[in-house]
Amino acid sequence: MTQINSVSFMRSLCMGRIEEDVVLPFPTLSEDERETLRGVVDSLRSLLEPRAEDFRKWDVEGELPSDFIEELKAFGLFGLVIPESAGGLGFGSGAYSRALQEIAKFDASVAVTVGAHSSIGMRGLLLFGSEAQKEKFYPRLATGEMIAAFCLTEPGAGSDAAAIKTTAVRNEQGWLLNGNKLWITNGGIADFFTVFAKTGAEDGRGKISAFIVTRDMPGVSVGPHEDKMGIRASSTTTVHFDNVQIPADNLLGEEHKGFKIAMQILNSGRTGLGGGSIGAMKRIIELASKQAKERKQFGKAISEFGLIKQKVGQMVVDCYTTEATVSMVASLSDRNFDDYAIEAAISKVYASECLWRTVDEGLQTAAGNGFMREYPYERVMRDARINRIFEGTNEILRLFIALSAMDDVGSQLKELATSLQGVFTDPIKGFGVLSEYALRRARLVTGLRRDAGAFTKLAPELSGAAVVFQQATSNLAIATDRILRKHGKNIIGKQFASKRLADIMIDLFVLACTLSRVNSAVQSKGAEKSATELQILEAFAGQAKVRIQTNLNAIDDNSDEAIKAIADHTFEAERFTWDTI
Ligand SMILES: Cc1cc2nc3c(=O)[nH]c(=O)nc-3n(C[C@H](O)[C@H](O)[C@H](O)COP(=O)(O)OP(=O)(O)OC[C@H]3O[C@@H](n4cnc5c(N)ncnc54)[C@H](O)[C@@H]3O)c2cc1C
Questions:
Q1: I need a surface site. Which of 96, 144, 402, 502 has the fewest CB within 10 A?
Q2: Are strands 148-151 and 192-199 parallel, antiparallel or unpaired?
Q3: Of the residues 154, 323, 391, 461, which is catalytic?
């Protein structure tokens, strides 16, 4: 039986505990996986490298031609995560993410097409499918005979997925499905749809359930390709269900568990998006560093100027730390950790924002050339933008990261408060009304102290960054505590405060993953051969330290109310209300 690990590094960290065995040593792929992956990466290069001009053309045309999609199928790209016994490559999250990285180096539309299939389209089947469902669909999904799509979003339900209106009403043959889905990746080319619909009430007020729907069912139709800013050649369409009769066997997982299923699918597929972001970053770093050496201004290569070094150096820090984080999340999944939702959300937010910064600075390095369509920067920039939007916007994910942590700390304090009842003369009703004295006690008992937790297994060369981490861990505990005390259960509406906490948590998790990666490098190659990696760690730790302190200071000293009032003023007027004439 597979052993489930139930510790969450970030949840523990919010309680002031550093679970170093979760992040040390840095994960590596198995020799078997590496062997297969090397072959896949080499053949991917030979398949995709010669198509550079085609990718440019297909971006303009806004579609991947069907004969190219057939080539992707023949290559086995739709079977990456399907077990070998069912005709797939059986990749775990780490190997899958690395394969997507390679595709994304060449073209984001191809990466999104393959990624939407494996990360979300068929992942429900992988995670929740019955044996019979797997037996029926795996072989066709592995060959790409069926391409998969994930159908959650609707016109009235984007971030608020629980507001979907699509319904599935139980009848003698199974379920009758009605509704409309919006912006579905692979919509135009898919035959297998994971569809979320409300069940249990015809008026749409039921609970969400998940279904497998196939294109051949009467009543399934799709709209035209959307004309998009980026990933233009990937297929994005509406998908419509008009009295679609679904067999009873096509319910995915348990009835009414659809919301949780959707969230777990997104969670489990996050390393696909992470891998894609890393691939695009590596490409931009290659382009920009060559460009900086070739371009001469003021009699010198621009690579000699400090401000250009700053950009390229930062791109590398961003890419290395993202790769450390995404690899760690993939390994949490591959090692059967059952609760890594916070860590996975952090990796999505971090990867998509590092990618955006890298593309922006890469384009700035190429300057005028970067702005020209003849060069790849502008397309990579258009393609990169979607990552901050789909699979959960970064705003929603930041709220999720922060509120999960505060919920944990809050309930621990609440539990403690209950257990302490009667000890004090003043009865304590909950963390919101804990007295100062009780809070101090609570901190002692729960370990929310300045000296809580430390790394013990890191190489001595990493001690500077480790101290930053440990200090910031106690700052995190202080921040969580201070925010909870300030806002109590009103925290849900305090999004500025939540964002600050999320940003501290993001910096901390990325720092932990980077410490782990550099530690493994130092231990295997020695400090001298790991000099640049130690500098990457030094740079990131220094930057994280400043950001964390700034976020901490801003909990009590900020201009949040002014910003909110300015926004409200503008919503009222629906315009900028000043002019100089
Ligand atoms: C190219 C593309 C491909 C896509 N592919 C798929 C797919 O395959 N399957 C699928 O189901 N969906 C897909 N989507 C939909 C995508 O997941 C949604 O666009 C996304 O979830 C955001 O929803 P929305 O666009 O309706 O934005 P909204 O939810 O309307 O959000 C608008 C803004 O408000 C913010 N916001 C919303 N609620 C809150 C809140 N409570 N607090 C603070 N800020 C908030 C958001 O962060 C955002 O900045 C795709 C979208 C695109 C553009």
A1: 144
A2: parallel
A3: 391
Write b or e for each residue in 55-66: b if 16 or more Cβ atoms lie within 10 A of its Cβ, otherwise e.
bbebbeebbbee
Q: Which two tokens stand for residue 84?
A: 């070998």
Token representation of residue 232: 């233009």
Euclidean distance between CA atoms 287 and 281, whole angstroms: 10
pLDDT in tens, 236-268: 999 999 999 999 999 999 999 999 999 999 999
Protein residue with least CA distance to atom 24, ligand 1: 158
Angle formed by the axes of helices 394-419 and 341-366, to 10°?
150
Cα–Cα dist 417/437, whole Å = 11
Q: Which atom of ligand 1 is nearest to the CA of 228?
A: 1
Mind giving me the DSSP string for 93-156?
HHHHHHHHHHHHHH-HHHHHHHHIIIIIITHHHHHH--HHHHHHHHHHHHHTSS-EEEE--BTT
Is residue 478 within 8 A of residue 538, CB to CB? The reply is no
The residue contributing the CA closest to ligand 1 atom 35 is 395
- The number of helices, as runs of H, and strands, as runs of E, in the chain is 21, 10
CA quadruple 423, 428, 429, 434: dihedral, nearest 10: -140
229: its two tokens = 């800013």
**Which residues, other chains included, contact 277 with Cβ-Cβ below 8 Å and sequence gap of 6+?**
104, 322, 326, 351, 352, 354, 355, 384, 387
Told to judge if 391 belongs to the known catalytic residues of this protein, a careful annotator would answer: yes
> Which ranges constitute the DSSP H helices of 235-269?
258-268
Tokens standing for residue 397: 């994910």
User: Residue 308: what pLDDT?
Assistant: 98
Q: Give, using CA atoms, the residue closest to atom 48 of ligand 1.
A: 393
In Å, how far from its chain's centre is CA 414?
31
SS3 517: helix
pLDDT in tens, 196-219: 999 987 666 789 999 999 999 999
Q: What pLDDT band is residue 339 in, cutting at 50, 70 and 90?
A: very high
The CA dihedral of 199, 200, 204, 210, to the nearest 10 degrees, is -10
- Mapping DSSP onto H, E and C, the string for 276-338 reads HHHHHHHHHHHHHHHHHHHCEECCEEHHHCHHHHHHHHHHHHHHHHHHHHHHHHHHHHHCCEC
Gap between the Cα atoms of 429 and 407, Å rounded: 17
Residue type, 117: H
The amino acid present at 199, given as its one-letter code, is T
